[in-house]
Amino acid sequence: MANKTPFTSITAFCANCGSILPLLQEFGSVKCYSCKSVYGAEKFNNIKFKYTIHFNTVSTVENENILNMDNPEGPVVERKCPKCGNDRMSYATLQLRSADEGQTVFYTCTSCKYKETENS
Ligand SMILES: [Zn+2]
Ligand SMILES: [Zn+2]
Hints:
Bound molecules: zinc ion
Strand order of the largest sheet: 3-4-5-6
Number of helices: 2
Helix content: 10-25%
Shape: rod-shaped
Number of strands: 6
CATH architecture of the largest domain: Single Sheet
Structural class: alpha+beta
Order of helices and strands: EEHHEEEE
């Protein structure tokens, strides 16, 4: 059996008979299925920590960036608003994907708040 992969650290073996022990439950101890040896939960603290760390990473970065563009205070350029004809629009840039793919420019009419985007 390979024992170099990180996953082997979540598996424990019975010190008595060498059987694979069941995974630790939330509370209590672990009992060997083969020889009925019982191991206290404290023996598995380290293992349990490594085992649960995977489930704590949640990523919600993308949405935040876009929501922030609702209130652009960027520089104003001469650009005609297609909606109201005003010739001043403020703009802000946002890198949506990787650096190679250019950026998106957000224009906002200073008069009617009409928004348009342009990919550079
Ligand atoms: Zn055993
Ligand atoms: Zn406008």
